[in-house]
């Protein structure tokens, strides 16, 4: 099913005071996998919702100061006109154009139409070996994904690994780092599993806050300014005092107050037509509006993330949606999108 986007959507966002420099575009919900931890969820994946290719490019072009655009799904390379989408976005000369993919195949992507420097390819890899990765993504997925990563790296493409930290892989991060080095990728980007979508049926995958704090200390102990692999990780849990300090210093702010990756706002177009700012708001009534027949309809309820931010400028949307809980010692929950960077 194709979903339209009209010029009204960009204009409506501007009327709300949002001037995106960081766009996250879920161009399709179609996917060849049904991962146990997928936050999009099987129901939406099965619906195979896709935005019209020309509309996606025109929407992005409405924001001339864009710095960062992320294209994802579902599996974005399954979009029938993914080459048209990417060609149009490349022509906008965006500083950072990213495609997030499971890379079990190249599907509809015509690599011959692009230069390796045109795109950054972020590949989902959820284990350091086949047993760990395939336990959540399906049989023989690890083998195919690693082979395709190696092919892109050999051809000079910029590749990073996106890794979802779960209970069954949290203790293997050292091994994952070694795999990333062998594959020759430039960045390892860590997320914690989001407790939404398919994850709600698989609570055994959830990492307790205490386990993540142990893993975080281990990662920070590996920090080496001369290391060749960049690692981005979410601190996620902090004390009340640290939370206040981070707000006061400007190190941290609510995501609705600005993107963490660009000097401006972040806007997320979800494949079901809802529009968000924070990832923690996905699937909740904190969305800022939705798109119906190409037109934007604002969420005017007090549960909208913009309304919540207006009532409390120090809001943590992660705590409002209760998507995860902190530990006894570090009870405050930061956005999963807020990352620190080390080299190892």
From TrEMBL:
Domain annotation Radical SAM core: ranges: 15-225
Gene3D superfamilies membership: Aldolase class I
UniProt KW Iron keyword: yes
Keyword Lipoprotein in annotation: no
Keywords assigned by UniProt, alphabetized: Iron, Iron-sulfur, Metal-binding, S-adenosyl-L-methionine
Taxonomic superkingdom: Bacteria
A GO molecular function held by the record: metal ion binding
Pfam families listed in its UniProt record: Radical_SAM (PF04055)
Alphabetical list of InterPro entries matching this protein: Aldolase_TIM, Radical_SAM_PqqE_MftC-like, rSAM, rSAM_sf
Protein name: Radical SAM superfamily enzyme, MoaA/NifB/PqqE/SkfB family
Species of the source: Amycolatopsis pretoriensis
């Amino acid at each position: 099913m194709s979903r339209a986007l009209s010029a009204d959507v960009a204009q409506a966002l501007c009327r709300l005071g949002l001037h995106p420099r960081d766009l996250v575009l879920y161009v399709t919900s179609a996917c060849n996998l049904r991962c146990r931890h997928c936050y999009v969820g099987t129901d939406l994946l099965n619906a195979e919702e896709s935005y019209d290719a020309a509309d996606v490019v025109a929407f992005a072009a409405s924001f001339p100061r864009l710095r960062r655009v992320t294209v994802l799904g579902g599996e974005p390379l399954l979009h029938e006109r993914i080459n048209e989408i990417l060609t149009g976005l490349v022509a906008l000369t965006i500083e950072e154009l990213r495609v997030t993919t499971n890379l079990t195949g190249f599907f509809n992507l015509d690599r011959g139409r692009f230069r390796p420097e045109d795109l950054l390819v972020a590949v989902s890899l959820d284990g350091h070996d086949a047993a760990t990765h395939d336990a959540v993504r399906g049989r023989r997925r690890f083998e195919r994904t690693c082979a395709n990563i190696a092919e892109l790296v050999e051809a000079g493409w910029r590749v990073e690994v996106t890794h979802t930290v779960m209970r069954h892989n949290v203790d293997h991060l050292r091994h994952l780092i070694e795999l990333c080095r062998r594959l020759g990728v430039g960045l390892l980007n860590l997320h914690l599993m989001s407790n939404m979508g398919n994850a709600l049926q698989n609570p055994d995958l959830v990492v307790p806050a205490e386990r993540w704090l142990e893993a975080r200390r281990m990662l920070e102990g590996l920090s080496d300014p001369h290391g060749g692999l960049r690692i981005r990780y979410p601190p996620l849990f902090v004390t009340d005092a640290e939370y206040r300090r981070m707000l006061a210093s400007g190190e941290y702010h609510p995501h609705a107050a600005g993107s963490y990756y660009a000097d401006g706002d972040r806007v997320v177009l979800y494949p079901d037509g809802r529009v968000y700012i924070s990832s923690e708001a996905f699937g909740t009534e904190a969305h800022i509006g939705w798109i119906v027949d190409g037109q934007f309809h604002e969420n005017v309820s007090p549960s909208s993330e913009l309304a919540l931010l207006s009532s409390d400028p120090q809001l943590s949307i992660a705590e409002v949606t209760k998507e995860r809980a902190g530990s006894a010692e570090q009870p405050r929950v930061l956005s999963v999108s807020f990352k620190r960077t080390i080299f190892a």
